[in-house]
Amino acid sequence: MKVVLDQNSIEVINLFQNLTDATVIDSISEDGEIYFVVAEGQYGLAVGKGGMKIKHAENVFKKTIKVLEYSEDMETFIKNIIPEAQEITINSKLIFVKVRPADRARVIGKNGKNIRIINKFLQRLFDIEELKVK
Length: 134
Hints:
The two termini are 27 Å apart. A three-stranded mixed β-sheet has the order 1-2-3, with helices on both faces. The chain has helices spanning 7-20, 43-47, 52-61, 74-81, 101-108, 113-126, and strands at 24-30, 33-38, 64-69, 87-91, 94-98, 130-133. By secondary structure, the chain is α/β, with parallel strands linked by helices.
């Protein structure tokens, strides 16, 4: 796992950790949203009861925040990110995820934004070249 963070990313992660008490593994800020990957089993801690912690963090950052739960097992991590995944095929540096046609647009996101974020995290955390949705 080779995640290199700049000073701004470190400050954002520290602030989020202080607000939520969750351990952050990685973070990406893009298009007015911040994505945090929290340690395994800490999703609920990061979000808080009724989403209170995440709402407070969004007010502090003045951005939308998305929380993803990490897992050392890549397949579990992908299922955490893409709960709609029906089948996951891993071919060395490529991953193929099969989803229902009705879920495909939501998984990919507008202009491919969701899949771009997922690919960034997979590259940074697992050294995967690309995830493709079937």
